[in-house]
Amino acid sequence: MKTRYDWAKIEQEYVTGKMSMHSLAERYHINDTTMYKHAKEGEFEDKRRKYHEKVMSKAFTRASTRDARALSRLMTA
């Protein structure tokens, strides 16, 4: 009997989280080889990198907007 895994959930958890593939494999009782093979096919690493770049970009944008508003208030005071 073949075990089915919720790969969408595992991918989402890996891409948006900080857990390693090995840790996720242990958590979901998946063989490391199976986990790494599926992650490679699904491009988990690339998706994780892009996700974190997007998050950092948004964080920088918010911080710069906040700083610009503060500076603007000082200049008009």
Strand content: under 5%
Order of secondary-structure elements? HHHH
**Which percent bin holds the helix content?**
over 70%
- Contiguous uncertain segments of 5+ residues: none
Q: Between the first and last Cα atoms, what is the distance in angstroms?
A: 73 Å
Please provide the count of β strands: 0
The biggest sheet, with number of strands, parallel, antiparallel or mixed sense and barrel status, is: none
Q: Look at the structure and give the mean pLDDT.
A: 92
The number of helices is: 4
**Shape, principal axes of CA atoms:** rod-shaped
- Nearest-angstrom radius of gyration? 20 Å
Note down, in words, how this protein is organized.
The protein is mainly alpha-helical and 77 residues long. Helix content is 78%, strand content 0%. The protein contains 4 helices and no strands. The protein has helices at residues 7-16, 21-27, 32-41, 44-76. Helix 2 crosses helix 3. The longest helix has 33 residues, at 44-76. The termini are far apart. The model has no long low-confidence stretch (mean pLDDT 92).
